UniProtKB/TrEMBL annotation:
Residues 5-103 form the NADP-dependent oxidoreductase domain. This is Non-functional NADPH-dependent codeinone reductase 2-like protein. One of its GO terms (molecular function) is oxidoreductase activity. Gene3D superfamilies: NADP-dependent oxidoreductase domain. It comes from Oliveria decumbens.
Length: 132
C-alpha cells in the first residue's frame, strides 16, 4: 500500500473486522520487480513535500502512518533511515489529504501469483474486490 495504491476498500473491510493492516513498499519500492516510481516521482507528493520542507518519502510515510497501518519500509542508507523515522512531530492538512486521495491509482501486482486452481482463491475475479 502507498499513496499510488491506497486500497481504501480493503482497509475499510479490515477495520470493520478488527484486522490490523501491515503494509510493505510504502515508498513504491522503485527498482524492485514489483516497484513503481509513482510514489517518489509523484507531482502531488512533491508539491506537498516542498510546502512542508519535508521529503517525498516522508510525506508518503506520514500519510500511511495517519491511515493507522503498520509500516514496513526499507533503506540501506543511514540518512534516509533517519529521515524515514522523522515523521511523528508534524502532520498533513485536510487539503494535503484531499490531494493525496486524488492521486491516480495503479495496482503493484496483477495478482496472478496469488491464485491457483487448487488453492483457496482460484481466479483474479475472486482475488480482487473491484477497486484499483
Ligand atoms: N512480504 C512481502 O510479500 C513483501 C513484499 C515486498 C516487500 N517486502 C519487504 O518490505 C520492506 C519494504 O518494502 P520495499 O523495499 O519493497 O519498498 P519501499 O520501502 O517502498 O522502498 C524501498 C526503496 O526506497 C528507497 N528509499 C528508502 N527510503 C527513502 C527515502 N527517504 N528517500 C528516497 N528513497 C528511499 C530505498 O533505497 P535506499 O536503500 O537506497 O535508501 C529502496 O530502494 C522490504 O524489507 C521488503 O523486503 C515484503
Amino acid at each position: 500500500m502507498n499513496p499510488a495504491w491506497q486500497q481504501g476498500k480493503l482497509r475499510e473491510f479490515c477495520k470493520a473486522n478488527g484486522i490490523i493492516v501491515s503494509i510493505y513498499s510504502p515508498l513504491g519500492a522503485a527498482g524492485a520487480l514489483w516497484g513503481t516510481k509513482n510514489v517518489l516521482e509523484s507531482k502531488v507528493l512533491k508539491e506537498i513535500a516542498e510546502s512542508k520542507g519535508k521529503s517525498v518519502a516522508q510525506v508518503a510515510l506520514r500519510w500511511a502512518y495517519e491511515q493507522g497501518v503498520v509500516i514496513v519500509t526499507k533503506s540501506f542508507n543511514k540518512g534516509r533511515l533517519q529521515q524515514n523515522l522523522d515523521i511523528f512531530d508534524w502532520k498533513l492538512s485536510d487539503e494535503d489529504n484531499k490531494k493525496i486521495a486524488a492521486i491516480p491509482q495503479a495496482r503493484a501486482s496483477d495478482g496472478n501469483g496469488y491464485i491457483s486452481e487448487t488453492g483457496h482463491i482460484k481466479s483474479l475475479e475472486e482475488l480482487w474486490d473491484g477497486e484499483i
